[in-house]
Amino acid sequence: VQLQASGGGLVQPGGSLNLSCTASGNIDSIVVMGWYRQAPGDQRELVATLTRGGVPTYSPPTEGRFTISRGNAKNTVHLQMDSLEPEDTAVYYCNAARDLGGLVSYWGRGTQVTVSS
Q1: Per DSSP, what are the bridge partners of residue 18?
Q2: DSSP 72-101
Q3: Which one of 9, 74, 84, 96 is separated from 102 by 20 to 30 angstroms, measured CA to CA?
Q4: Rounded to an integer, what distance in angstroms lies between the CA atom of residue 95 and that of residue 97?
Q5: How far from 2 is each of 17, 36, 85, 98, CA to CA, in Å?
Q6: pLDDT at residue 84, rounded to an integer
Q7: Cα dihedral value 55, 59, 63, 65, nearest 10
Q8: What is the per-residue pLDDT for 8?
Q9: Percentage helix, strand, coil, to 5, in the chain?
Q10: Which residues sit opposite 24 in a β-bridge?
């Protein structure tokens, strides 16, 4: 599975950004896709995920401000980020997991999100 992410950039506090991630390759066994982020000096953390059945999960800092959704193609997910805060500044990574008897995780290249005035 290959993951191609797009979006990100620089935005002022209170602004919005949208990230997209498209999976290619052996996508039929993907059971969940989502986003994680890593700020300098911190560990990578969950942002939001969406199961194949359409069930979203959000981390407490992002719930109510971020929305994860599936694109028209089942292998694409979007992350709409609203009311962005400087604390949201990080490299955001797309993730997909396949069910191969156990979960196998795949990562895309990170995309920088910077929230600053």
Answers
A1: 80
A2: SSTTEEEEEE-S--GGG-EEEEEEEEEESS
A3: 74
A4: 7
A5: 23, 16, 30, 12
A6: 98
A7: -110
A8: 93
A9: 5, 60, 40
A10: 2
- Residues 47-64: tens digit of each pLDDT: 999 999 999 999 999 999
62: buried, middle or exposed (CB in 10 Å: 19+, 13-18, 0-12)?
A: buried
CA distances from 80 to 1, 8, 17, 43, 69 (A): 23, 11, 6, 22, 8
- Amino acid in position 71: G
pLDDT more than 90, % of the chain: 91
* pLDDT tens digits, 66-98: 999 998 877 999 999 999 999 999 999 999 999
